[in-house]
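Supplementary Note 3. Input sequence used for the single-chain structure prediction.
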Amino acid sequence: MTYRMPPEWAPHERTWMAWPGPNPTFTDDEELAGARTAWASVARAVRRFEPVTVVHGPGHAESARQLLGPDIELVERELDDAWMRDIGPTFVKDEQGRLAAVDWVFNGWGGQDWARWEHDSKIARRVADLAGVPVLGSPLVNEGGALHVDGEGTVLLTDTVQLGVGRNPGWTRAQVEAEVHARLGTTKAIWLPRGLAGDYGTYGTQGHVDIVAAFARPGVVVAHVQPDPAHPDHEVTKEIIGLLASRTDARGRRLEVVEVPAPTVLEADGHWADYSYINHYLCNGGVVLCGFDDPRDELAAGIFRRLFPRRTVTLIDARTIFAGGGGVHCVTQQQPRATVG
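The predicted structure, written as discrete structure tokens, is reproduced below.
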């Protein structure tokens, strides 16, 4: 049986999210309350375009319902954290259009000291069960934010994630590619050497691709660019953009790279900011875009409006989400629409 991961712009059945609960990411009541408000703003924005199901831990239904409102489905399952992109399944489809769910091994973004994953390592299977689809297990330690596909055979990966010693020690690039291709139906991997500087901090993922580059359509990639030479990502993004522009995809097309400038702010909470508009989410008829109350918010929104003229672009203040280690894309996970028959 051959499976293929549809691109994010393909029609969705729904979006899955997880509700923040007390954990090392949200260290006190104020941070937890702020996170819940931010997650809820994303959920409500997505709900304008498609159904949303939010998984919450025991005892957190009331807080979720108060902030999410009546139009978002809630289900209770044990959770450790709230990054559904990474802990949830990667949905794929077979030749008949039937859904299945890839369950990567999740180990807290490479076994980081602060992370907990007793429950999160099981969420992919629990979401698949709720969705009523079979599970395809994988021995690869991986997360949904660590890959991006064009739907025509090409996948973006990062050396410091899939080949990181905390995730897959001893795996070769060829072995990683073989496993990824087998699960996603891809045939060509484009590897980025690393992620943004801020993504290697305390709550960083060690280089997730979905904050750096993403397909907008086959042959076209949006890429983060840091215009300010004072920021270490100035050189990082220059290298990555040059690499992407020199690559061809699985169909032999040279990639067109659309540069999206970083927000003007360089530091956040005493560290290099990794604020990025690339960490957006495509839903049915919409683009939910990270905002930072920054002069470049509208510049980024304009770029995405030109890329997706038939979709409504909605800016969501993502600074609180980034403080926890991610963005809008990181807290969402699409379930593609089945096309059986």
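The chain has a mean pLDDT of 97. DSSP finds ten helices and 19 strands in the chain.
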